[in-house]
Amino acid sequence: MIDLGAEAGSGLFTGVQVMEPEIFDAMPSHSCFEILPHTYLPLLSDGARVGTWLQPTSDAWHPIGTPRELLDANLALLAESGASRWVGAGAVIPASASLGPGAIIGAGAELSADTSIRNSVVLPNARPPAGSALERAIAFEREVWRDD
What we know:
The chain is α/β, with parallel strands linked by helices. It folds into two domains: 1-59, no CATH class; 67-146, no CATH class. It has three helices and eight strands. A hairpin with a 2-residue loop joins β7 (137-140) and β8 (143-146). It is elongated.
């Protein structure tokens, strides 16, 4: 029997998991199930060991469930790094493009002439529309989300 409530600590389950292949044998055969009550709790009840990692409280955690949260998390991490901008490998940035403070350009992204990026994220391989002026925006593929 598992003594729930006797945990040494608690935290947020983010759903990020690294599993050994054997875990799949313990999962229910039906297509929809919850991993905690239907897989981990039975394994623990049977004496199996399940390892976890608890992020130190001193480490930053940024939720990214909405475009605004994704933008804010990227800008916060950029500010924490002390850099004013970041450009990923293979990004194409013409000389006439303007990268202001808070410009985050993903790997393989391609900016066109006269594009202006400030406090915005251009996701990997994105191609924002020609001449875009991005301020608190996220460019993805050929689209732009704006924090209006």
